Amino acid sequence: MTAQIIDGKKIAAETRELLAKEVALFHNETGITPHLAAILVGEDPASAVYVRNKERACAKAGMKSTLHKLPSETTEAELLEMIEQFNDDSSVHGILVQLPLPGHIEEQRVLDAVTPLKDVDCFHPENVGLLAQGRPRFQPCTPRGVQVLLEKSGIDVSGKHAVVLGRSEIVGKPMAMLLVQKGPVANATVTICHSRTANLKEVTRQADILVAAIGKPNFVTAEMVKPGAVVMDVGINSVDGKLVGDVDFDQVAPIASSITPVPGGVGPMTIAMLLDNTLTAARIAAKG
Ligand SMILES: Nc1nc2c(c(=O)[nH]1)N[C@@H](CN(C=O)c1ccc(C(=O)N[C@@H](CCC(=O)O)C(=O)O)cc1)CN2
């Protein structure tokens, strides 16, 4: 079997084109241009690339974005003050704090400070709670990106065993919530596993759909994958200056039915979904 390669770059570009049309319609109806305020603290080179790509994607979709760069010595109090300003600024619809933050800043306190109505990353406990209850206000960007890739690739999820490898707040847990809930590209039977799971290989081998989000390069090998499984690789790891996923692509592609590459798989969808959430935030603001 040779896996169908899921082209995330292409699907993300198509999604962004559709969004651009929705943004134009929304602007015609309301006069409002969705505005994303992105905050970058410190000098992490990968983060600088991601926020630049987010800015470009906003511009292409007809949205406004403002990037607020803060030095790595910025205190937590200063960052919280900036977030408070954006919370109160009605011209800002979405607020994004690029992660990771420098070690002296407590991430959770910062993410909790973003008003839930502008929380386009869907990190705020109120939005995570709504998601868990199956009535999301925003969709978590990377997990939603995986779901859209499955949908666009015609992969049936309902009744399938989806195994999510990784339990992070940003991908693993919300991914499981999206796949298990009622609705399209959902209704899966979901298992979350992680580095402390006993007999991990036996668990991942049960997956009809395996989502790898463990943050370890080439962690998923052929023996961990059931032949014919769909493999979605969320990992973005730099190894010797090269970007690799959490899945050993060369080993796994020959036995999977579909697989996402890294780069060019799930990553580009994260930004497309962020734009979608920013439009949702602007719609929420327009309703008042
Ligand atoms: N506030 C947030 N911080 C972080 C998030 C997030 O969703 N919100 N996710 C990651 C980084 N990230 C977006 O911020 C992100 C990572 C990777 C890509 C992407 O398109 N990757 C490309 C390769 C790009 C490259 O060459 O480096 C790919 O996989 O093809 C987009 C967004 C952590 N922080």
UniProtKB/TrEMBL annotation:
Any one GO CC term of the record: cytosol
ATP-binding recorded as keyword: no
Domain Tetrahydrofolate dehydrogenase/cyclohydrolase NAD(P)-binding: 140-283
Involved pathway(s): One-carbon metabolism; tetrahydrofolate interconversion
EC number(s) per entry: 1.5.1.5, 3.5.4.9
Domain of life: Bacteria
Residue ranges of every copy of the Tetrahydrofolate dehydrogenase/cyclohydrolase catalytic domain listed in the record: 6-121
Keywords: Amino-acid biosynthesis, Histidine biosynthesis, Hydrolase, Methionine biosynthesis, Multifunctional enzyme, NADP, One-carbon metabolism, Oxidoreductase, Purine biosynthesis
Binding of NADP(+), residues: 166-168, 236
PROSITE patterns on file: THF_DHG_CYH_2 (PS00767)
InterPro entries: Aminoacid_DH-like_N_sf (IPR046346), NAD(P)-bd_dom_sf (IPR036291), THF_DH/CycHdrlase (IPR000672), THF_DH/CycHdrlase_cat_dom (IPR020630), THF_DH/CycHdrlase_CS (IPR020867), THF_DH/CycHdrlase_NAD-bd_dom (IPR020631)
Pfam families assigned: THF_DHG_CYH, THF_DHG_CYH_C
Entry GO MF terms: methenyltetrahydrofolate cyclohydrolase activity; methylenetetrahydrofolate dehydrogenase (NADP+) activity
Gene3D superfamilies: Leucine Dehydrogenase, chain A, domain 1 (3.40.50.10860), NAD(P)-binding Rossmann-like Domain (3.40.50.720)
An individual GO BP term: L-histidine biosynthetic process
Catalytic activity from the UniProt record: (6R)-5,10-methylene-5,6,7,8-tetrahydrofolate + NADP(+) = (6R)-5,10-methenyltetrahydrofolate + NADPH; (6R)-5,10-methenyltetrahydrofolate + H2O = (6R)-10-formyltetrahydrofolate + H(+)
Family membership: Belongs to the tetrahydrofolate dehydrogenase/cyclohydrolase family.
Subunit structure: Homodimer.
Task performed by this protein: Catalyzes the oxidation of 5,10-methylenetetrahydrofolate to 5,10-methenyltetrahydrofolate and then the hydrolysis of 5,10-methenyltetrahydrofolate to 10-formyltetrahydrofolate.
Full protein name: Bifunctional protein FolD
Species for this entry: Polystyrenella longa
Lineage: Bacteria, Pseudomonadati, Planctomycetota, Planctomycetia, Planctomycetales
